[in-house]
Amino acid sequence: MHESGLIEDLIRKIEAAARANHGTKVTAVDLTIGAFASIEPDHLREHFEVASVGTMAEGAELRIQVSEDPLGPDPQHITLQSVEIET
Questions:
Q1: Distance (Å, rounded) from C-alpha 65 to C-alpha 71?
Q2: For residue 70, what are the contacts with CB-CB under 8 A and spacing of at least 6?
Q3: What is the domain class of 2-86 according to CATH?
Q4: How far is Cα 9 from Cα 20, in angstroms, rounded to an integer?
Q5: End-to-end CA separation in angstroms for the chain
Q6: Per-residue pLDDT in tens (0 to 9) along the chain, 87 residues
Q7: In whole angstroms, what is the distance from residue 37 CA to residue 69 CA?
Q8: Hey, where are the domains in the chain?
């Protein structure tokens, strides 16, 4: 499934960012969905909740912004904007 690969990659990036900053738990994640990313926020959230079980991101608040600008940065991607952590 396409979404599973996207979410697994996203969680790897989130955990790498948390570890690089000596985090022990991810509390919140800010994402931007590009105009042509072809995934709805609720669908992304559902996949994230399932895939994050047992990871540093389990239970993290997922804050999603959707870009409607087809000329904006990375219009076909989900972009990780920030990660809030506990240390």
A1: 16
A2: 35, 36
A3: alpha beta
A4: 16
A5: 34
A6: 467 788 999 999 999 999 999 999 999 999 999 999 989 999 999 999 999 999 999 999 999 999 999 999 899 999 999 999 999
A7: 11
A8: 2-86
